[in-house]
Design brief:
- There is one protein chain.
- The protein is of the alpha/beta class.
- Helix content is about 55%, strand content about 10%.
- Strands 1-2-4-5-3-6-7-8 form an eight-stranded mixed beta sheet, sandwiched between helices.
- Helix 4 runs antiparallel to helix 9 (about 210-225).
- The radius of gyration is 48 Å and the shape is elongated.
- Keywords: Signal.
């Protein structure tokens, strides 16, 4: 079998459809056989060359890929060419299927040109669909590591591209091989470089070069292994073999999943009359409906729940239902509870009498209404999603308090403007005034020059037995100075004597 494959390869090389186009040659034969065809055209002019397999991400269009390839090679190769080689010593494979990608990556000694699209980098998906199998085959068959050259978009930059690509590759690398040392792209490739399209050729030519004979021998080995009757099964191939089971699980469980979602939403919709009726035990209703939905989905087909699709759908069931209800029905219930509390508040205000204490009575009713709202809203909270529900309930309570307070303020202003309400007058303020006398009793006779011999204390006995001097209003009006009525004078009618 191997000899037959060798003869076929030799015949294909002789009959190769390689075409010389400007400064490079290209071939449209199947890979990796076409790689030998373009290298054979350069054997006479090139003693060493570098090889690489170009791998695009999922959403990279054919136009974008062709434009990048033209920039890399410095020319305009045929879009259908499988292999191209420049006279500078760079041979590039352009595979179109997964089988060609994994074989060409090994034939190029593990050197890969990866072209991610901005869409895949932004979403974090579609980056490893072709690069993952290529890395897995490189690890299982190659003895030496190749190089990875990532073509970066100038808008996104090398740092952002590197961060997003490494984040997408981290979970894939753990399943490529049984070796625990494979944790990053640097463990798969000897060098990982992030450059623009016009820097790719110089970067690859600067790497270790190989003689054309060695490359052609490696291509022959890869083709013989691919045509072998007992190909080596890889971990990636085993995962691909499990896809029919996943597809069957998705086909059956997705139908059940949709039915369970529709039935659960119908129960909530009927109980709340399409979010127009207040259900004070809404939280208990949500918990019961969610449990019933989970039990129905679990008991429908337990065998398929062990698949990746089954686990994902089972975990996302409660999340999708709870998030939908918390953003829809729960918000509607909070609004209905606010309206009901406001209606009760209006009824309580109608029973108040217009009196001096109307303002304090309104404040008391506001506090009672808000407290009753806080008690009732606890019944609206389901056990799942309680953190976000409590936050929304607190915001709704604060909004209700502001609404009631503003309503009371407007009603008081309207009643006061119409004359129906008069606030309680303010209490009078009593002001006490005290006169501090530096002397015991006004004019001290001891300050007179002829009375300096008097050293005894003077005793003042007012006319009133309470010893409190009150100044009548008439006296102040007549004299204009109240101090004359307070400060005693020895010449007055009061008794002043020496002790």
């Amino acid at each position: 079998m191997i000899k037959f494959v060798g003869l076929l390869m030799a015949a294909a090389m002789i009959m190769s459809s390689s075409v010389v186009s400007g400064s490079f040659v290209e071939s449209r034969n199947r890979l990796p056989m076409s790689l030998s065809g373009v290298i054979s055209e350069l054997q006479d002019s090139v003693t060493e060359l570098s090889t690489a397999c170009i791998i695009p991400s999922r959403t990279l269009t054919a136009t974008e890929k062709q434009s990048i390839l033209q920039t890399i090679l410095g020319g305009a190769p045929d879009a259908n060419s499988k292999a191209m080689a420049t006279d500078q010593g760079l041979a590039v494979c352009q595979p179109s299927s997964l089988d060609e990608i994994v074989n060409s990556a090994v034939a190029c000694q593990g050197s890969v040109i990866f072209v991610p699209s901005n869409t895949d980098l932004t979403q974090g998906e579609g980056l490893m669909e072709m690069l993952g199998p290529a890395m897995e085959r490189i690890l299982s068959t190659s003895t030496s590591k190749g190089s990875l050259v990532v073509v970066c978009n100038e808008q996104m930059g090398a740092k952002v591209t590197q961060a997003k690509l490494e984040a997408a590759a981290a979970p894939i690398l753990q399943s490529l091989t049984d070796k625990k040392t494979i944790k990053s792209l640097q463990d798969v490739f000897s060098s990982v470089t992030y450059v623009t399209a016009n820097q790719v050729q110089d970067t690859l030519l600067a790497n270790t070069k190989t003689s054309p004979a060695d490359v052609m021998a490696l291509v022959k080995t890869v083709m013989e292994q691919a045509a072998s009757a007992t190909p080596t099964s890889s971990m990636w191939d085993q995962k691909m073999a499990k896809q029919p089971v996943e597809l069957a699980a998705a086909r059956k469980l997705l139908t059940v999943y949709k039915q369970v979602l529709d039935n659960a939403n119908r129960v909530i919709n009927d109980a709340t009359a399409s979010n127009t009726a207040l259900v004070t035990d809404f939280g208990a209703l949500v918990d019961a409906t969610l449990k019933q939905a989970q039990d129905t989905f679990t008991n429908e087909n337990k065998k398929l729940l062990g698949t990746a699709v089954g686990k994902q759908l089972s975990s996302s069931l409660s999340t999708e239902l709870t998030s939908g209800w918390m953003h829809g029905a729960f918000e509607a219930q909070l609004g209905l509870l606010q309206d009901a509390s406001f209606a009760t508040f209006r009824q309580a205000l109608g029973k108040l009498r217009l009196g001096p204490t109307l303002s304090s009575d309104m404040t008391a009713i506001v506090q009672d209404t808000v407290q009753q709202f806080a008690k009732t809203v606890q019944g609206l909270l389901p056990s799942s999603g309680s953190s976000s529900g409590k936050t929304r309930a607190a915001d709704s309570r604060a909004a209700l308090s502001r609404r009631l307070t503003e309503f009371c303020h407007d009603r008081l202003q309207a009643a006061e403007a119409s004359g129906q309400f008069k606030p309680v007058p303010r209490k009078g303020v009593t002001v006490g005034m005290h006169w501090l006398l530096p002397k015991p009793f006004g004019n001290d006779f001891r300050q007179e020059p002829w009375m300096t011999h008097a050293t005894d204390n003077m005793v003042y006995v007012p006319r009133r037995p309470t010893k409190v001097t009150e100044v009548p209003e008439e006296s102040i009006i007549q004299t204009g100075d109240w101090r004359d009525q307070v400060v005693p004078s020895p010449a007055g009618r009061d008794m002043v004597f020496m002790q």
